[in-house]
Amino acid sequence: MQKDSLVIIPTFNEIENIENIIKAVFKLEKAFHILIVDDNSPDGTAIIVKELQKTFNDRLFLEVREEKSGLGTAYIHGFKWALKHNYKFIFEMDADFSHNPSDLIRLYNECAHKGADVAIGSRYIKGVNVVNWPLGRILLSYGASIYVRLITGMKVYDPTAGFICYKSEVIQNIKLDSIQFVGYAFQIEMKFRAWLKKYKIKEIPIIFKDRVKGTSKMNRKIISEAVFGVMSMKCKSLFSKDF
Known about the structure:
single chain, alpha/beta, two-stranded parallel ribbon, 8 helices
């Protein structure tokens, strides 16, 4: 089985979704591998994954961290694992079906066949394609995307998106250990660093559906990091060699 594409799914208390999302990815016509990065979920998410590994031992992998340490650090852990195992295309995806697994193929095609270095599943490239979010959250998210574009100059309509395909060379050339954000602002910083390095970023429209099962991890601290950290990130990029 061809080993070129790895989907990284960070989890914390996703026992209601984890089996279904794994099986949905493995039903796709494209052969994706999956790495679950679990933050020692007390609900037993990792136990379910270990059971599924008996069936999908050559495609499903699990890394369990000691504690909940932030979305960004979970993805960085996964990125390093993916590079170590020589995957060419590295994906980010949520466990809760807010991202449609079938759209993985569209992201893959953009990077593998259409010249993109980074392909983003975008909620805002064609209007607002969000289902089941309250109006306040839509306004906050959409407003944040405009704010990020204004501050950074980055021509990305959905900079906080978490459904992404990176070519491995992009990850290799981003200094992962210098990433400053650990929450959802991590998504902004990764795209910003790729944009600064002149990689080709392509957004494709998706429909984002809020989770049906489980609990959202969004909180005020995460939002504040995204809003107030962008200015410092932009300033740091002007004066620091870490970028």
